[in-house]
Design brief:
Blueprint: H1 2-24, H2 28-47, H3 51-55, H4 63-87, H5 89-98, H6 101-110, H7 117-134, H8 149-171, H9 178-202, H10 210-235, H11 241-264, H12 270-287
Helix pairs in contact: 1-10, 1-11, 2-9, 2-10, 4-5, 4-8, 4-9, 5-7, 5-8, 6-8, 6-11, 7-11, 7-12, 9-10, 10-11, 11-12
Length: about 290
């Protein structure tokens, strides 16, 4: 359970960093790319014992999986940016957090995890809680028909990322390779991002600032640990993976909302408070469903 709490904490710090990006004028795209480089560096130097570990990465059975994950990290981020521009932050928040439904149902069908009444009710309440906690207007969320494809792709892409991490962790990643596996995902995403920056430089559209580099550092450290601790939580005995994913996502919703109230003076509408209550109920139901 400690790994799950640490993953929620790391993911909540990511929320805080993103919030500060807007206030400090950080170029989000550049900071995201630098964050991948920092995240893989943290893993390679903090959790890898010898240089021989790096050499054997291409021969590992999970190597094709990290290529897919690295590409998905960049792709989903860009889709999230487009969705934010066209439909707003609330839509991105709902699409990302409700994607927990994909790894949860994958756990049921791929790993024969339980589908008890309390668990199903808890998962449904968790999804409702995510929606109600994320919207910031009494009218709810509205999306133009021509823009609907973008949040759908964010939803599917985010769900595939979690499901793929879960699958690789279950069948291919040994316990001693968790750090190497986590670092390698960010390394692939970072390499792809650097290629994009090189392309921008060639076209004369690149302007790197220390503010963006600092933003990448501030994001990269908690980002690495959010993945590392999530993988360790999935390995912990006592809870099924579908339970871990549900508790992780709803825990992030609760923690980020509370931080928004306490430190950023965010005001909640009635639907947000209902969402928080449902989030707490869903946690109790899911955690006690086994």
């Amino acid at each position: 359970m400690i790994y799950l709490l640490l993953s929620i904490l790391a993911s909540t710090i990511i929320f805080v960093v993103f919030y500060l990006y807007k206030k400090l004028g950080v170029n989000t795209f550049q900071a995201i790319i630098f964050n991948y480089i920092i995240a893989c560096t943290v893993g390679f130097f903090g959790f890898i014992e010898t240089g021989r570990d790096l050499v054997r990465i291409p021969s590992e059975s999970w190597f094709p999986g990290i290529l897919i994950l690295g590409a998905l990290f960049i792709t989903v981020f860009n889709l999230a940016a487009i969705t934010t521009q066209r439909s707003g932050m609330a839509v991105v928040s709902v699409a990302t957090k409700m994607s927990v439904a994909i790894p949860v149902f994958a756990g049921v069908f791929l790993y024969n995890e339980s589908t008890g009444f309390l668990k199903l009710i808890g998962i449904i309440l968790a999804l409702v809680a995510v929606y109600l906690s994320s919207i910031k207007s009494k009218k709810g969320i509205t999306i133009k028909r021509e823009n609907l494809i973008f949040p759908l792709l964010v939803f599917v892409g985010s769900g595939i990322i979690d499901t793929t991490i879960n699958y690789l962790e279950n069948f291919y990643v040994s316990e001693k390779d968790v750090g190497l596996f986590s670092s390698s995902i960010f390394a692939v995403a970072g390499i792809i991002g650097i290629c994009i920056l090189i392309g921008q430089a060639v076209m004369g559209k690149l302007k790197i600032t220390w503010r963006n580099l600092a933003g990448g550092i501030a994001l990269g450290i908690p980002n690495y640990f959010s993945i590392y601790f999530l993988v360790m939580a999935l390995r912990s005995p006592g809870f099924e993976n579908s339970v871990i994913f549900t508790l992780n996502h709803i825990g992030i919703v609760l923690a980020s909302t509370l931080i928004g109230i306490l430190f950023f003076k965010e005001e909640l509408i009635q639907k947000n408070w209902i969402g928080l209550v449902l989030a707490i109920i869903s946690i109790l139901l899911v955690a006690n469903s086994q």
